[in-house]
Design brief:
Radius of gyration: 24 Å
Strand content: 5-15%
Largest sheet: 7 strands, mixed
Number of strands: 14
Structural class: alpha/beta
Distance between the termini: 46 Å
Number of helices: 18
Shape: globular
């Protein structure tokens, strides 16, 4: 203990040990180093760096990588933030490019929330909840009750709320897909609860394997873990996989048999390039309506579905808007969920307004529709084109295998490294994929996340990259680096 430590109440040895234990690779050591390089380049001090830009392919942060905001959303938001603009509506429309439906939407939202600088109800503004319910009903073909919808501080705020409610003790366990988005394992660590990993099947397009899930559950229960819930990320992060209707119903049937809460993380539901997105809500209602439910055994499945403005074509990560819908939850449990979110007062009100615009965008016939559709389709097509360009590049790289780019914002290729490279990683006390990712950053300025940050089967190596960055120059950087790396460490 240093002299200065003795003069303070807190030091690394006496803070919450569960926070210290938590890991979040997406913003870990590689991300910190990439920001140091970015700051160096910003100062004009490129030094001996072999690149002149940083490509943050480590995180799904679209607007940091030049994805442009949707005009309708930002114009409405500008009025919400500065209602004085409404004093001269004619100037907005005649000289500033605002459409009449922009002004009308802003007025309606202001009527609902009064001011984006004021608190809303803890579970969100009622009118916004009603818009979400209509969106869910139109998407799935089944009714949605606004009373079961909770606005949140991004989808991650909803995850945090739900896991706080689910985790009863240090023996509580939650089934989490591996590879997984590290929000889940990190939050479970902070709560001193247990992650129960179940592996996805890479050779089956990263689909679920029911036998693997059953085995993981049985092992955990034998070890004394009180497994309460199963997390499913669909479309997948980091894998980009999109689950079939059959996979979804298998998980729901399993949850009913084992009395597990299903947490369906569906924030990438509009980022689907192959097949179509099917929500867990639709899967559940279809199952409950089917002949398989004659005895009502699926009527009490507890499902929490999460969505966010941070992904899709909206990409408004910084505005922190999201929601979750609860189905089949005991009312007394929902009362405790409401109490928990009340302690946090309310989710960001401007974020709630962005959620409303996401679920209720301009429709055909509206003045803003043509531009909205052009911007939306342009973002979607750009993402798909870059996903396939990156996928094609991976297919040509030695020792790299990658599943088809089905959806989300990521590819998660397997890399096969030589024993020489693995030995070099051991000398630096790093995992081989972490070693590879650090060398990639140092050589190209492209920041990815090693597969070990998400979990992976023993003996396999991966990395996750987004395909959000504009252009293809950075893809060329990766392929050039990879060839040189493989040549340098050839056995």
């Amino acid at each position: 203990m240093t002299a200065t430590t003795r003069l303070r109440s807190l030091h690394i040895g006496n803070i919450n040990p569960h926070v210290k234990k938590a890991k979040y690779a997406v913003r870990g050591e590689l991300a910190v180093r990439s920001e140091q390089y970015r700051a160096q380049l910003r100062k004009g001090d490129s030094g001996n760096l072999p690149f002149d830009t940083i490509v943050a392919a480590n995180i799904g942060n679209p607007q940091q990588l030049d994805q442009q905001p949707i005009t309708f959303f930002r114009q409405v938001a500008s009025i919400l933030e500065n209602p004085a603009l409404l004093k001269n509506e004619d100037a907005l429309i005649k000289y500033m490019g605002y459409k009449k439906d922009v002004v009308e939407r802003a007025k309606w939202l202001l009527k609902e929330v009064k001011s984006v600088g004021a608190y809303s109800q803890s579970h969100g503004a009622p009118g916004i909840k009603e818009s979400i319910a209509k969106f869910i009903e139109q998407r799935d073909g089944y009714p949605s009750d606004p009373a079961n919808i909770y606005l949140s501080n991004g989808a991650s705020g909803g995850v945090n709320t739900l896991l706080h409610i689910i985790c009863h003790s240090h023996e509580t366990g939650v089934l989490v897909p591996i590879p997984q988005y590290p929000l889940y394992t990190a939050t479970l660590s902070v709560l001193n609860a247990r992650c129960v990993p179940y592996f996805l099947e890479e050779h089956k397009a990263w689909g679920t394997n029911l036998e693997e899930i059953k085995s993981a559950l049985a092992t955990a229960r034998e070890e004394g873990t009180d497994v309460r819930a199963i997390v499913v990320i669909n479309p997948g992060n980091p894998t980009g996989a999109s689950l079939s209707e059959e996979d979804i119903q298998e998980v729901l049937k399993f949850a009913a048999e084992e009395k597990l809460v299903v947490m369906a993380d569906e924030v990438y539901q509009t980022n689907v390039f192959m097949g179509k997105f099917v929500s867990f809500k639709k899967g559940l209602r279809d199952l409950q309506k089917s002949d398989a439910n004659k005895d009502g055994k699926y009527d009490h499945i507890e499902l929490a579905s999460l969505h966010s403005i941070s992904k899709g074509m909206v990409g408004e990560c910084g505005h922190r808007g999201g929601y979750f819908e609860l189905i089949g939850f005991d009312q007394e449990v929902q009362d405790q969920i409401y109490k928990f979110i009340s302690i946090q007062l309310c989710p960001p009100v401007i974020g709630q307004c962005f959620v409303e615009m996401m679920v209720n965008p301009p429709k055909e016939g509206d003045e803003s529709y043509e531009l909205y559709k052009k911007e939306y389709d342009g973002i979607f097509n750009g993402l798909r084109e870059r996903a396939y360009a990156l996928w094609e590049a991976f297919k040509e790289m030695e020792g790299v295998e990658c599943q088809d780019p089905q959806g989300a914002m990521y590819l998660f290729p397997t890399i096969k490294l030589s024993q020489k490279a693995i030995a070099a990683a051991e000398k630096e006390d790093r995992q081989p994929d972490d070693f590879y990712s650090h060398r990639l950053l140092d050589a190209t300025g492209v920041c990815v996340v090693p597969g070990s940050g998400f979990g992976q089967k023993e003996g396999t190596l991966h990395f996750r990259t987004t395909f959000l960055a504009p252009g293809t120059d950075w893809v060329g950087r990766i392929t050039k680096f990879h060839k040189e790396f493989m040549d340098e460490f050839r056995d």
